[in-house]
Specification:
It is a single chain. With 124 residues, this protein is mainly alpha-helical. It has one domain. Helices cover 70% and strands 0% of the residues. It contains six helices and no strands.
């Protein structure tokens, strides 16, 4: 398995909890704060890469989409199931953007293997 595949799989598994929060959000309970919960887990995932401009933008989009989902599913608003489903899909797509941004940051941090050994081989 290549390094890219391993990193991508690790990130995907880590984001399963975030996707579960978005998928199971009902908006019916007073103590639920979807945006804060999702952003807390996103910040844990981002770790040292949090200073990346692409990551900051992706985080902002996730926060915006989660707030939008929370407003759509609010127990005191008119709850349209189709509108809630669209808001949930948009929040999930924003998490995809954040996942890709974290992957790119981690991939750029990895050392590039040296090709010097290959160049020193005797020619045939």
């Amino acid at each position: 398995m290549s390094n890219d595949t391993m990193i991508r799989q690790e990130i995907r598994c880590s984001f399963a909890l975030i996707r579960g929060l978005i998928r199971n959000y009902s908006g019916l309970y007073a103590g639920e704060d979807l945006a804060a919960d999702v952003l807390r887990y996103c910040d844990e995932m981002a770790g040292r890469e949090a200073s990346s401009p692409r990551l900051k933008e992706a985080r902002r989009i996730v926060a915006e989409r989660c707030r939008h989902l929370a407003q759509a599913a609010d127990r005191f608003s008119q709850r349209d199931p189709a509108f809630i489903a669209i808001a949930r899909a948009r929040a999930d797509a924003a998490v995809d953007l954040l996942q890709d941004a974290i992957f790119e940051c981690r991939k750029s941090r990895m050392p590039v293997p040296s090709s010097g050994r290959l160049l020193r081989r005797k020619s045939l």
